[in-house]
From TrEMBL:
Lineage, top ranks: unclassified sequences, metagenomes, ecological metagenomes
Gene3D superfamilies tied to this protein: 2.30.42.10, 3.30.70.3400
Descriptive protein name: PDZ domain-containing protein
Native organism: marine sediment metagenome
Amino acid sequence: FALISIFSIPPTFMEKGVLVKSVEQNSSIFNEGLRKGMIITEINNQQIKTIDDYYEAISIFVELAGNETAKLQIKTKTKEIIGLFPKDVADDIVVSKIPKTRIKTGLDLQGGARALVTGENVKLSDKQLDDLIAVVGQRLNVYGLTDVQLRKVSDLSGNNFMLVEIAGSSPSDLEELIAKQGKFEAKIGNETVFSGGSKDITYVGRTGQDAGIYSCDQYQEGHACNFRFTISLSEQAAQRHADITANLTIN
């Protein structure tokens, strides 16, 4: 026979607000008493019922510059916090939907990091944001990451942001994944001939005869074009290229 123990787990689907997943320790908002597990129901007199409501309300801090501060009034089910906070407060708080059940799933057990991304001094159009999400998605897929969510959010001023959520990632890991510039390398076999950057590449052609589309083919879905550009190598990189290619055979 089988012995089965059944425990009652109260549902949470009737609760409104967003769940605080983590708060950066020793941050200004942490020192004011916001803690993991609290449920935020209101920000600056705006009711918070969904994740989109939260990011819309907190987006005023994303737009702050330098040492500017703004008023933040947070109401939770157990505490109210009022004060002037700097730009970083938007990064110090990680929230999620309130789970429909108190049973924890893989994402809840792992934790993770979340970021809002937008253009620097540029207001992204819907098309640009769609392209950004597609490019970042491809980049993250290269690393074989799972439990990654990318989606569009916007604030009351119409500014568009990309929301990135990665389970099992720290904020510093997430920043490196999405903000670090990609590395360009030219290889022959397993040997690197030259790498991107001023050490190996002294000039990159971008206009005129030095760069452009030189052929296009039409397909049913559209066009596929070949693009080429001119680069100049440093003396050391050119010598490395000569040494590596010296013994190559031409078929």
